[in-house]
Design goal:
Blueprint lengths: L1 H7 L3 H12 L17 H6 L17 H7 L1
């Protein structure tokens, strides 16, 4: 209930300001984190039918079409 009270106070301009500060590619305050999860040998032996996904380690988020193609 407290969360809903706080969210009611947000306006569209607050959301735009948050986007411009933290998410926009042009923001100097933007940070990115990439996480790759590698399964243990036990997990991979349980899922042998799942094909291996090759990841292009040189791709960045600015290379989005290339990243999608490689997946």
């Amino acid at each position: 209930q407290l969360l809903s009270e706080i969210l009611r106070k947000f306006e569209r301009k607050d959301l735009i300001q948050f986007y411009d500060h933290y998410i926009s590619p042009r923001s100097p305050h933007r940070r990115k984190l990439m996480v790759f999860v590698r399964p243990s040998p036990l997990a991979s032996s349980l899922n042998d039918e799942i094909p291996e996904i090759k990841i292009n380690e040189k791709a960045t988020t600015t290379d989005l079409p290339e990243v999608k193609y490689d997946l």
